[in-house]
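During the no-cost extension, the postdoctoral fellow (Dr. R.K.) reprocessed legacy sequence entries with the updated structure-token encoder. One reprocessed record is reproduced below for audit purposes.
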Amino acid sequence: MSQNIQQNDSSLYGKQIILGITGGIAAYKSADLLRRLIKAGATVQVVMTKGAQAFLTPLTFQALSGLAVRTDLLDTESEAAMGHIELAKWADLVLIAPCSADFMAKLANGLADDLLSTLCLATDAPVAIAPAMNQQMYKTAVTQQNLLRLNQQQRLIWGPASGVQACGDQGPGRMEEPEILFARVAHQFKLTNTLQGINVLLTAGPTQEAIDPVRYIGNRSSGKMGYALAEALQEAGANVCLISGPVNLPSPVADCVKVQTADEMYQQVFARIAEQDIFIGCAAVADYKVKEIATQKIKKNDKQLALTLIKNPDIISEVATFENRPTLVVGFAAETENLLDNASAKLLRKNLDLICANDVGSLTTGFASDQNKILLLMRSSEEHIESEQLPLASKKELSKQIVNIIAQRYNQKKSK
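Re-encoded structure tokens follow.
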């Protein structure tokens, strides 16, 4: 692998990395590594063991990262703001550099007696270690057994390098240089970009159908789920075009087209659909619009007001039957009852490949909530439907899970 990777590598932009530092003279190299990661656009939370603090102070890494360094498992202030379990969930990658022989032994045997070892057990993110120790410590049988066990646990082992050591010995055990570890981090995130170069068209948010110049028919969609999906798709390497109804959210992607009505969304979708590999209809498109929009504000003259509504175009159904149909068409079903039955019927009726169903009648998973839980329904044949339940989590975390499943389904269809 080439070690000549630019510091502004886009694969690191916006990534959330825990940099664990254990006791060893190589800890001074970690400051350089941290600087490179920050410069590349990553957010880095440094976690130091007691041994690490004997070599460098937390203040050094706080100044470089802009974040208070975490050192204690039971820190009352930190637990109130972001508990150690939340920190473990926050990470996209945990990198321990340097990783001492002692910490390797802890990790290999599942010990969790400090913050860093606890994070390694609690996280779903990849855990990488950069071993650093005396060459004889590295060569000893028990250390090699621990390395084998870590490899079997699918931990990423980066190094060590060989050369002259601080003690004067020469041999394997030097921590890899910061530029090499930076390159490995960048490469690791590129490996997770499962939709690299794939064109994805995504709709999000509500639509608003005018009644008169003042009033409109709308719905409660906040756009939070769709915008989280756009961010996750971009992180996965996709070329994302987001077509958004009116929301109060900053766009997570550069290519964002703002619309207001279902007709406008329809026009923008079909101006682009022929070039897309995947279409995701996350928008809560109004089913109906007013047949005749009043040119002036309607006055409150009568006790009742009758409006004639007509159907809006069914965007996702037309995408699914389009002549140059995208390889994968994904829909969303916002339901208040009979979630499985209603979502299954929609999946088949609209000829979708996958549908994400959620109960919007709940206070914890409704439109405005930052959390959600999703029932995924996937067609494996004309009539057979597979299901997978994604439990309650933040919409950001759920979006990453959904994008991983979309990528798997897309690659399966392309390989047939």
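The first strand starts at residue 16 and ends at 21. The domain at 10-191 is CATH 3.40.50.1950 (Rossmann fold). The remaining legacy entries will be reprocessed before the final report is submitted.
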